[in-house]
Amino acid sequence: MDRLRVALWGSLVFLFLTVPAGLSLAENRVGGFGRMSFAQGQRRHRGMGPEAPWISIMLRHRSELDLTAEQVATLEKLRSDFGQQVAPKQEDLRNTEAEIARLLPEKTVDLVQVRAKIEEAERLRAEFRYLRIEALENGKSVLTAEQRDKLKNLASSGHGRFRRPHGQPS
Questions:
Q1: Which residues are within 8 A (CB) of 149 and not within 5 positions of it... i.e. 6 or more apart?
Q2: What does the alpha-carbon distance between residue 157 and residue 150 come to, in Å, rounded to a whole number?
Q3: Cα separation, 151 vs 161, whole angstroms
């Protein structure tokens, strides 16, 4: 009975720790990147805030924004570079979360190890978030003032039309 209780609690703790991490890593396809950022996963795009996937949005609405071929190429490169930068961090985070989950079902949990792993996971999340904000700022700098205004207007008018133009796959 005691063993069953430990297994049940261990499973619940594992789910509690890994499901949010898993949800935050699942991606609505963003170009060739293919994974959602941690910040995106946690916010699930509650509105079009400063950490929304603005580069992908800009690219989806290139015609409405009158982006030049050079701007499109720069934005695609920023998005691609971001994906390459964060992919190893996402893998490290998955491994760290798995290690935390492995430590918890032990009969006696090593709290020092658990704390160190939690701090490592949070450091990775912070680095990821910074890289995301840096990429978004670089993306905004590609647009002219007029294009930034158009983007704001698109965002404030009709979110359904703004998020995914008709006929475009996710």
A1: none
A2: 11
A3: 13
Residue owning tokens 């910040």: 39
Which residue in this structure is represented by tokens 């934005």? 75
Sequence length of the chain is 170
> For 154, phi and psi rounded to 5 degrees?
-60, -45
For 37-74, the pLDDT digits (tens) are 444 454 444 455 677 788 999 999 999 999 999 999 99
Q: Other CB atoms closer than 10 Å to residue 131's CB: what's the count?
A: 16
pTM for this predicted structure: 0.62
Q: Are 38 and 125 in contact (CB under 8 A)?
A: yes
